[in-house]
Amino acid sequence: MSISDTVNHQVILSSRPVGIPQAEHFELSEAPIPEPKDGEFLVRNKFLSVDPAMRGWTNAAKNYSEPVAIGDVMRAITAGEVIASKHPDYAEGDLVVGTLGWQEYGIGNGSEIRFKVPKMDVPLSAFLGILGSNGITAYFGLLTHGEPKAGETVVVSTAAGAVGSAVGQIAKIKGCRTVGLTGSDDKVEFCKSEFGYDEAINYKTADLDAALKAACPDGVDVYFDNTSGSITDTVYNNLAIGARCVVCGTASISVWDPLPTGPRVERTLLVKRARIQGLYVFDFEDQWGAAQKDLCQWFEEGKLNYREDILDGLEHAPGSIQRLYDGENQGKLLIEI
Amino acid sequence: MSISDTVNHQVILSSRPVGIPQAEHFELSEAPIPEPKDGEFLVRNKFLSVDPAMRGWTNAAKNYSEPVAIGDVMRAITAGEVIASKHPDYAEGDLVVGTLGWQEYGIGNGSEIRFKVPKMDVPLSAFLGILGSNGITAYFGLLTHGEPKAGETVVVSTAAGAVGSAVGQIAKIKGCRTVGLTGSDDKVEFCKSEFGYDEAINYKTADLDAALKAACPDGVDVYFDNTSGSITDTVYNNLAIGARCVVCGTASISVWDPLPTGPRVERTLLVKRARIQGLYVFDFEDQWGAAQKDLCQWFEEGKLNYREDILDGLEHAPGSIQRLYDGENQGKLLIEI
Asked: For B280, which residue in chain A has the nearest alpha carbon?
């Protein structure tokens, strides 16, 4: 798909999925490029983000946000450049990260902008991942809910993913031992070589319980959970006294209505004096700036590596959410347009 | 059973139960009354406590404490009087609460004493309940883990029980709305009349989900959980954003090995940004004195009511643990000897 100067190419939600959205639930569409009114500005999106939260946005079940309406442009986090402005705070040339959706051009009024990209010699795409919502999610989930102390053992599921890899690295910065759970030997390797995990386990081929006992002889102090399901059940079987478990995502379970069953957690929490806490990064929105400042500093110090999996062209958007769940993508999944 | 001056009547654990201990798992026994050595003292027990924790103490499964060995005196919290002492800190006439077991006479060296009973015009038995471990458990579970704020809605399971009734009353002292869950219309009535609950629900006869929605129109901010099981699942279906759930006990489930299954909690915790945390009151042991001071003050101000269910004589001990689970006892269960 080529960039058009007159047409705004878009991806709309055409039917409501149950579970993980597939390509068939979306349609490519066209609209005129909108004109900013007073108090608005026009953004040319450069990168579109693909995130697990989009599953929730497409489903009708209760969640953080209103579902995307059928026929609407798919909600998505975007990074782009202001190319026309009638807003006093946004100037042509400003780079912005916001929620402008799966489309080439979006109109903003400021409310949908998450942040202006700071002037740094860093690729714009990093602000959709390690220096954007993924890094910020990792930051608050680990530091505020997980409360890691130096010397403790932090276990991360989807350890090589966009959030997980940031969690593992921030935990190392805080002096923890890190153990990553991931789904291939290749990912095990780069968990250790690129993201600094002390240990990494391929949960698909290992005896996970035995491997966790070997990797965490004193138990798991902090568990950053991106998966739920049997991986999580096995980690819960290995918690240390006083463990803190952070629920950030539930990637291993595709349908939550009705609630799936699993081992009850109450006795484990009681015996281990442990806690499980759900994370919603927007609850920390007023502190994002401070978090991003730390992340940018660590990034410049070379302490935060990241991987990207960039699809070229808007036509790849419809099938991209599924890609988050099939274990194939290696790093932050983005669409460049 | 009469008090003997030469014989120490005891209850020993004679076989290992699976699940809730029954009378058949214990035997009455006799031993000589022990003599205190240097650094020791002899206590004549007056009241023996019957607590849900005793289930864990009798079972072989992993728990907080070492299991009681077969043939040993059953571990129990006791209140009694020092009647002979070769210990500088304990004098004849001191009243003490400790873990001296299901027996008439116990030897202490200080390590098994939880506290000396303060000089107050209060029945000794209250220091095994509302002013002892039950009140202290309620205090830390509610205030430290539950973090209730004035105006919030606090839901308590086993609301009329020794811990639950204290939780409800402390929550009222802190300005919360309180909703009690209990198992009979009689208990519903005295939850409201004696323990000040704003609402009380008989979970055995009500449609609990509908009743909770009616009693908690803005959702449940704090859930103090003494039951686990389907009551807990239904409360989790009614959590408010940011809810704090405290796991104090699991009375509705008798066997935890293997772990029973229930609805998975991860998605609920994520969507509600809620947490579940297990409570072990001994983690706060260094702060018990301060808690007891608050409890005694509230008690003297008439803000803490309590009920006792006192069985007369050591021969009632073996069958007493079961009584905690059959819904019959109304208030703190004790054996007076």
From this structure: A273
Here the tokens at position A289 are 């700036």
Other beta carbons within 10 Å of A40: 17
Mean pLDDT of chain A: 94
Span between the terminal Cα atoms of chain A, in Å: 8
**Contact in structure between A180 and A160 (CB atoms under 8 Å):** yes
Q: Which amino acid is at A158?
A: T
Cβ neighbour number for residue A301 with a 10 Å cutoff: 9
Radius of gyration from C-alpha coordinates of chain B:
20
What span, in angstroms and rounded, lies between the C-alpha atoms of B259 and A271?
Answer: 13
Is A198:A175 a contact under the CB 8 Å cutoff?
Answer: no
CA distances from A82 to A34, A171, B169 (A): 13, 36, 58
Both tokens of B113, joined, read: 């004493």
Chain B residues inside the 8 Å CB shell of A248: 270
Q: What is the ipTM of this complex?
A: 0.89
φ and ψ of B130, to 5 deg: -60, -30
Task: Give the whole-angstrom CA distance, residue B216 versus residue A209.
Answer: 40
Joined tokens for residue B14: 């004679």
Query: Buried (b) or exposed (e) across B7-19, using 16+ Cβ within 10 A?
Result: ebbbbbbeeebee
* Residues A220, A239 contacting (CB under 8 angstroms): yes
Mean pLDDT of B210-238: 98
Q: Hey, what domains does chain A have and what are their CATH numbers? A: 7-129+307-336 (3.90.180.10), 133-282 (3.40.50.720)
End-to-end CA distance of chain B: 8
Residue-wise pLDDT tens digits, B282-324: 899 999 999 999 999 999 999 999 999 999 999 999 999 999 8
Residue A89 Cα distances to A47, A77, A92, A118, A281, angstroms: 22, 20, 10, 14, 25
- Among B139, B160, B118, B129, residue whose Cα is nearest residue B51: B129
Asked if B260's CB is within 8 angstroms of A278's CB, the reply is no
CB contact under 8 A, A277 and B269: yes
- Chain B nearest-CA residue for A268: B278
The pLDDT of residue B66: 85
- B59 CA: distance to closest CA in chain A (Å): 13
What does the alpha-carbon distance between residue B160 and residue B158 come to, in Å, rounded to a whole number?
6
To the nearest whole Å, the CA of B131 is away from the closest chain A CA by 23
Q: Which residues, 6 or more positions from A134, have their beta carbon under 8 angstroms from its beta carbon?
A: A128, A162, A163, A166, A332
Bond into A258 cis (ω within 30): yes
Distance CA B56, CA B254 (A): 10
How many whole angstroms separate alpha carbon A103 and alpha carbon A78? 9
Q: Which residue in chain A is spatially nearest to B248 when comparing CA positions?
A: A270
**Cα-based distances in Å from B253 to A244, B167, B213, B227:** 24, 21, 25, 7
**Cα B259 from Cα A263, distance rounded (Å):** 6
Question: CA–CA separation, A7 vs B238, rounded Å?
Answer: 47
Mean pLDDT score, B98-127: 95
- Whether the Cβ atoms of residue A142 and residue A171 lie closer than 8 Å to each other: yes
Do A164 and A226 contact (CB within 8 A), yes or no?
Answer: yes
Using alpha carbons, select from A241, A225, A275 the residue that is nearest to residue B145. Answer: A275
Go through chain B and tell me how many residues it has: 337
Q: Is the pLDDT of residue B111 over 50?
A: yes
Query: What residues contact residue B18 under an 8 Å CB cut-off, 6+ apart?
Result: B59, B255
Three-class HEC string of A48-97 = EECCCHHHHHHCCCCCCCCCCCCCCECCCCEEEEEEEECCCCCCCCCEEE
Question: Chain A: nearest CA to B266, how far in angstroms?
Answer: 6
Distance CA B25, CA B208 (A): 35
